[in-house]
Amino acid sequence: MRTPITENLIDKGYLVKDVNTAISHRQAKHRGAMYRKSDSDDAEAIALATLNMLDKLPDACPNDAYWSLGQLVHRRDNIMKQRTRLVNQLHEQLCIAYPSYKSFFNDISRPTALYFWEHYPSKKYLKGKSVEDLRAELVPVSHNKCSTKTCEKILDAVASDKVKNNAYQDARDMVTLSIVSDLQHYDSQLTEVDKMLEQMYKMLGCTLTTIPGVNVITAVKILAEIGDIKRFANANKLAQFAGIAPLHLSSSGKGKDVATKQGNRRL
């Protein structure tokens, strides 16, 4: 982790180690202090873990690039959580305004769908709209992907749903419009964050995306957890840090490898 005290100690020539929380927790458990939670208990557990495992612990990684990458990844995760929450709220509103909305928009948060909810939060705004009118409006937004059939589905579904006019529909529409506005805002932020993540990935010169199935987002999440790979003496050290190195248990000349509970569980 990048902190002022870490940087200061490294600048002065001190050896600084990174103690994973799983290791300090295990140390506290061995001391019988698992259920005692205070700063002094945590500090003692970390100190004992450092003394007992000094050679096995990775060096601290105060590198600005990886710290900044981790902050961006964390920000992206928060945006995605907020976006999921907003999509669920939009589902609640659409169930009332357009009961058959899933028949014409499978993904209610894609740009074309958001445009539709923004301009037609309820069926009253579609009054007098023909299939041709709706298609002419949605085609540019959907980049020519919105067909006449889709527009027919929308108008047919609205006609068959027979949703009654509500005295407080304007209030409900305002809620829908507010949710759509928030989603558009987060989508814009997500685009900017993803663009910056891609730039940082290229700047670090990593080749993780050459692995089939690993895209830039997956790669930067891995890099944010690992940090500078040069702080690990060899591949075995990295495997231990990640918690994917098997633990060998032996007794009476017989042994077996089991999965370890140590390491970075997020990684």
Please specify the SSE layout and strand pairing.
Layout: H1 4-11, H2 21-30, H3 39-52, H4 64-97, H5 111-119, H6 131-141, H7 148-161, H8 169-204, H9 216-226, H10 235-242, E1 247-251, E2 254-258
Antiparallel strand pairs: 1-2
Helix pairs in contact: 2-3, 4-8, 4-9, 5-8, 6-7, 8-9
Domain Transposase IS116/IS110/IS902 C-terminal: 208-267
InterPro entries: Transp_IS110-like_N, Transpos_IS110, Transposase_20
GO molecular function: DNA binding; transposase activity
Overview of the structural elements:
This protein is mainly alpha-helical. Helices cover 58% and strands 4% of the residues. It contains ten helices and two strands, in the order ααααααααααββ. The chain has a two-stranded antiparallel ribbon with strand order 1-2. A hairpin with a 2-residue loop joins β1 (247-251) and β2. α4 crosses α9 (216-226) and α5 (111-119) runs antiparallel to α8. The longest helix has 36 residues, at 169-204. It is elongated. It starts with a helix and ends in a 9-residue tail after the last strand. The model has no long low-confidence stretch (mean pLDDT 86).
